[in-house]
Amino acid sequence: MSCGIVAYVGARKALPIIFDTLKRLEYRGYDSAGVALLEDKRIFLAKQKGKIKDLEDGLKSENILSGIGIGHTRWATHGRPSDFNAHPHLDCSGKIAVVHNGIIENYNELREELRSRGHNFRSETDTEVIPHLLEEFYQGDPLQALQKAISRLRGSYAIAAIFTGWDKVFFARKDSPLIIGIGEGENFLASDIPAVLPYTKRVIVLEDGDTGFVSSAEYAIFQGDRKIERKIMEVPWDQQAAERGGFEHFMIKEILEQEQSIRDTLRGRIKEDGVVELSEELAPLADKISQLGRIFIVACGTAFYAGMAGKYFLESLLDIPVEIDIASEFRYRAVPVREGDWLILVSQSGETADTLAALRDMKKRGLSTVGIVNAVGSSIAREADVTLYTRAGPEICVASTKAYTAQVTVFYLLGLYLAKLLKGMDIRPLGKELLTIPQKVAQVLAKREEVERMAEELYKERDFFFIGRGMDWGVALEGALKLKEISYLRAEAFAAGELKHGPLALIYEGVPVIAVVTQEALRDKTISNIEEVWARGARVIGILREGDPLEKELALSFTIPNTIDYFTSPLAVIPLQMLAYYISRKLGREIDQPRNLAKSVTVE
Fold first, then answer.
1. Which CATH superfamily is domain 245-435 in?
2. pTM for the complete prediction?
3. Stretch 357-373: mean pLDDT, rounded?
């Protein structure tokens, strides 16, 4: 499961706070919601399929004074979306309630064992074994029961549990994110920091193996029987940074934040003369840089397409082989690795299950690992040898935008720094050009009304095709992904040179073909591919450099400021992000939370 957990303990009414914090996790995607609160000596439980607001509206007549409770939004993995499969889940006695994110891999054998011992199961979920295990092990100490229960679990979990008679929420974490929010006379648990920002900026990011509890006055964290301290982090974001800031959707807000997010990613890492300095961040691998042999880039979805830009850039500058793989495929390949190989893992959340698994597998085989992540304190950030943060700030919309451009920017910084060390290259001209990219992004964003007018002409189409070559191919893939994610229209991307090897069969009169033509070295080749679809009646929409003569031949096009081939990707992808947004808005789609998708995919 890849959803939202929240918990509250304090003097205020818990229910409205639980609903408020849950709503701040809606971006993670979900199909049902539920709450459980301690009320006198019983647990009040309410859960149902559908949106949080539906559940909240159904409880408006309830006057629940409880100051302790847990809440959950579920994205189905085991069992269909339904009222009875929604969380929280109870034990047989109704005195223990549990919410859980993750997957319990051995739930079938545990379920059969518990059934044989008289336990009655009410759902189809893997999660329900947890409250029954807690019931089995509980002998007056909830934390001890939880520690014994998780010793029986195989898989991933973030767990929050309440027990009648205890004014605490108990927790456990392994391979699924969970944080503590520390307030004044109140404390919180949540899957992600934005949930608690209206209440506190002081958080602790829990780590694998952590168990413990929060009460209104204190919290405690254990590794096994040993009580430990974890660093309290002051969150640099304000509440508004995690909210829409007056925009209709998070997606357009985050698209428009890209000038700043790229500036933030560059800040302190590149000097005015274009020299890149990453020595402090790469210090753990300093003695291995000179032996760098091959690079593997591993990622999923949008992060994978950012990695494609990274592959082209690193290969070109460093003259070493760079492979890129989808994480869910890479981890099951028999990959031959050698001393000196590096693994670069790209993930906005730092919790992407397949990417994290690839990191762990390859670390066992001795590879040096570099994480490119956005979420501070996430699993990949903690476990990689080196972490290069993207500094994009909170990204709430499920469809990633500013994370992509920040990830590409980190690849640029890494490539320039390694080129200086390994090749003795004078990187200053490239570095100076990289420093101009935020301002050029601002110029692209200033023309968003052009894209909105383009969307007016295109939103009634049923099919879209995207083509490009070299770094433009990765941009085309990302543009198609954005459109299909939030519009639910068919959108496919192809390497332009592959059209004649099959995809031309899909071209029909008037079908939109969005051609990304920003790589000067490949321009003539791409134009020859445009001629192929033109000849078959396609309507070509161009993403071009300023001054490209092709603009005069196209009814629809968008031009980006001129830069060198390497640095066009952040500029060329933004009009495609905006096009997807404006088409989806015209179609009335639920843009920030598209159907069937979740923001942070923490299960395989």
1. Glucose-6-phosphate isomerase like protein; domain 1 (3.40.50.10490)
2. 0.74
3. 94
